[in-house]
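User: Hello, beginner here. Can you help me understand these amino acid letters and fold codes? It all follows right here:
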Amino acid sequence: MTLEKVFILLCLLSFSSVYAVEGFPGREKYPDVPYISLDDLYTGYMNDEYTIIDTRSQFEYNIIKINKAINVPLSQDNFFDNITAVAGKTRKTIVFYCNGRRCMKSYKAAIESQLSNALVFDAGVFEWTIKYPEEATLLNKTPVDPSLLISKSDFKKHFVSLQKFESLIKDSILLDVRDLNQRRGTGLFLLADKSVPLDKTKKLNRYLNRAVKENKRLLAYDQAGKQVRWLQYYLEEKGIKEYYFMDGGAKYYTYNE
């Protein structure tokens, strides 16, 4: 091999390495945590080699998940005890996943689990669903129709500024979907908003059904403008025609009073 070819090969290898890190930032941030690729996980999944753990909230898990995955939310105080109990019932390798490449919950779960045989699937549930829709569930339906996945652009177009959000409150159903720890007392809009944490599905459905029945606009805000992403799937499924989210969420509002 000529020196020129060696140089080109080294450049290509260097580029591939940088691309891998950029595409999967967790691999650079947590270099000691082993990961598994999408196709390798699928092969092992089909051969029943892994116990797959969904580290997200129960609400997210109920929206979309990998089939056969077990929900053990990282956010729960007793995460270590829960994952230890699951690991004690299986001899399979544990694989943690969350939403996507920039979600670090899977890496943090692998570390906090203290398991020696844990892997991280950092491509996330959406890439899995797009490539293997027959092995995923969306809103209790499998196989998944990938066209029903909400794009980032369709999500973002429902965000409005604080000023616009406030102007729409009249004649709308206004929901504060933060959990009680985030809310810590009253909502941001005095008595106009209703506290409906996303894990309170029965209470949430009452307000969504009311919006449908009364043909009312629905407004919702969370802590940082991220959790409403999951609420949107419920709103679309219910057929709610007009709904908006507050850009930046309550955190932004508080810092910009």
